[in-house]
Amino acid sequence: MDSNCTLTKNQSDIIFAENECSDGMCCFTCVIPSNNGHIGFFKSMWKSGTGSPYVKLLVTSEGHKNELYDSCKFLDFIISRNSGDSILKIDLRCSIYKHRPRQCRDYPDSAGESLYQQISGPCIFNEYTAPGAYKDLVYKRKWDAFYAILDDIDAIRNIFVNEDAHIARESLLKAEGVHLATISQGTEELNYILIPLSKRTQNILYLSEKHQPVGTIEQAYHRWQEKIQINLQNHYGTEWEAKLNNAIEMEEKDAGKRCNEDTTGNLKR
Ligand code: SF4
Ligand code: SF4
To answer: How many domains is the chain built from?
Structure first.
């Protein structure tokens, strides 16, 4: 969703918890269809996670409109502090982990049609943390991502564990890179606390063997190649390679035929 955002302020450290997939980025973007259609009627009556509806994902890039994504209803967004130090730890978890929909379980390994919409790998956090050379090749724009927490004391109370909400808000605002911002969506203007999404990957344990962090362009190329082959196999079955070679042969024959024809389509003498 498009939105406008005005930064007003800036300044301890915020890290991800050591947890599988602790950035939760896909729970804002690729996995979920609009209106959380993936959770179905029955699950829509289940209790929400702590992130919804207070936390959104803001994507910014110069020269482009900002994009604001709602979180999945079941995303738990938790910030805690280790006793004795000032480091804040962000942990994003699925509150219905054992019952999460198939497209969430299969993402990012399984690309293709889901019951509700097409989901495709690779994992969006891999893309976000990939080296600049890879991004220059793949993306037309450089983008940054932020968690946007509604600047509201109830929202903060919901997110911070074992902490007074007012003290928690102050320590959050002192953390490095955190900003206050006003975001307008349509006619509505709301204040948010923006936390830049960490690009440090050492704390992320990847669920997927296939979608390890993107390190080099060559590695990314092989991944694309593999994806194309899987698509061909899904479409044409196990015979895909023979069919592809056959199609290339036919194309070459057709091209040869065209060279031997004059502009009227008659064979040259
Ligand atoms: S690491 Fe990838 S799959 Fe895991 S939560 Fe982040 S975006 Fe989703
Ligand atoms: S159901 Fe769980 S894994 Fe799926 S998008 Fe929601 S929070 Fe993420």
So the answer is: 1
Is residue 255 domain-resident? no
Q: Is residue 233 part of a domain?
A: no
Candidate from 16, 18, 23 with most ligand 1 atoms within 8 A of CB, to mutate: 23
Give, using CA atoms, the residue closest to atom 3 of ligand 1: 123
- Inside any domain, residue 163: yes
* Helix-then-strand count for the chain, H and E: 8, 11
Gap from CA of 233 to ligand 2 centroid (Å)? 29
**Strand 88-94 to strand 2-7: parallel, antiparallel, or no bridges (unpaired)?**
unpaired
pTM, to two decimals: 0.75
Query: Each residue of 174-222: pLDDT tens digit?
Result: 998 999 999 998 888 999 999 999 887 654 545 566 666 777 778 777 7
pLDDT, tens digit, 9 for 90 and up, residues 6-26 = 544 444 688 877 666 778 888
Backbone angles phi, psi at 195, to 5 degrees: -115, 115
Q: Which domain holds residue 195?
A: 2-215
Closest ligand to Cα 99: 2
